[in-house]
Design a protein that fits this description.
Layout (H helix, E strand, L loop, with lengths): L1 H19 L8 E3 L4 E5 L23 E6 L5 E12 L2 E6 L7 E4 L9 E7 L5 E7 L6 E10 L8 H4 L1 E3 L6 E5 L6 E7 L15 E3 L6 E9 L2 E9 L1
Parallel strand pairs: 1-3
Antiparallel strand pairs: 2-9, 3-8, 4-7, 4-9, 5-6, 5-8, 10-11, 11-13, 12-14, 14-15
């Protein structure tokens, strides 16, 4: 009988330890667009005390719960905390489950404990959401609502922003929809060979008059973001 009680107690301890990891960086709680969930930071520890430059190196000394979401499409991704019972909480977005990779953090609402933060999200990219206690010892229960709003403000990739005209072209290609400040542009032919005479910087008009007829790729690199757009010369 004693062995059964001991084994049962050990089993419950192991299960409890496994469950306690859910909601940490090691095992974030997975959410989907349109989902509302409840949480309580009282059962969690303070593992993250400071966040990176994008969040002004803000320190949050209370216990936190970590969530993960991968929106299927480009959207304005919002995490909203409401019905808070207890101490002050913050909502934080991370690129990776590393506090230095902070994207945005909610500001204090002076009239309530509700907090909300929105970021432009790229479809298929995983983001981490942290609900964190503001000060040491801060714990609270809350509702967390996730919305993925595909509005006219939807995030576009650099490739989607760019258009080329005229296409096909004989003499010049105009590039529309991108700030060419410090952009590097190359022309790649159908064999993959770079046929650009020189790197093009800060220009929105590309001379293609010396190219032979055929299909080409305009390769653009701006601030580490790359885009490829096809065009043809006739």
């Amino acid at each position: 009988m004693f062995k059964k009680v001991l084994l049962s107690s050990l089993f419950l301890t192991i299960v409890s330890a496994g469950l306690s990891q859910q909601g940490t960086c090691a095992s974030p709680i997975v959410l989907t667009c349109g989902q509302t969930t409840t949480g309580n930071t009282a059962s969690y520890q303070n593992s993250i005390e400071s966040y990176g430059f994008a969040c002004s190196f803000s320190g949050k000394e209370g216990a936190e719960i970590v969530y993960q979401i991968t929106p299927p499409n480009n959207c304005n991704l919002t995490a909203a905390v409401s019905n808070v019972v207890g101490d002050d909480l913050k909502v934080v977005f991370l690129n990776t489950c590393n506090p230095v990779d902070c994207i945005a953090m909610s500001d204090d609402d002076p009239f309530s404990q509700n907090e909300s933060e929105t970021i432009p999200a790229t479809g298929g990219t995983t983001y981490y959401i942290v609900v964190d206690g503001n000060d040491s010892g801060d714990v609270a229960s809350f509702d967390l609502e996730i919305t993925c709003d595909q509005t006219t403000d939807v995030v576009e990739t650099l490739e989607e922003q760019i258009s080329l005209y005229p296409n096909p072209s004989k003499n010049i290609i105009n590039v529309k929809g991108v700030n060419f400040n410090n952009a590097e542009v190359h022309i790649i032919d159908a064999t993959g060979r770079d046929v650009t005479n020189q790197t093009v910087l800060n220009q929105t008009t590309i001379d293609v008059s010396k190219l032979t007829n055929g299909s080409y790729m305009l390769s653009i690199n701006r601030n580490g973001k790359k885009a490829n757009k096809r065009f043809s010369v006739q």
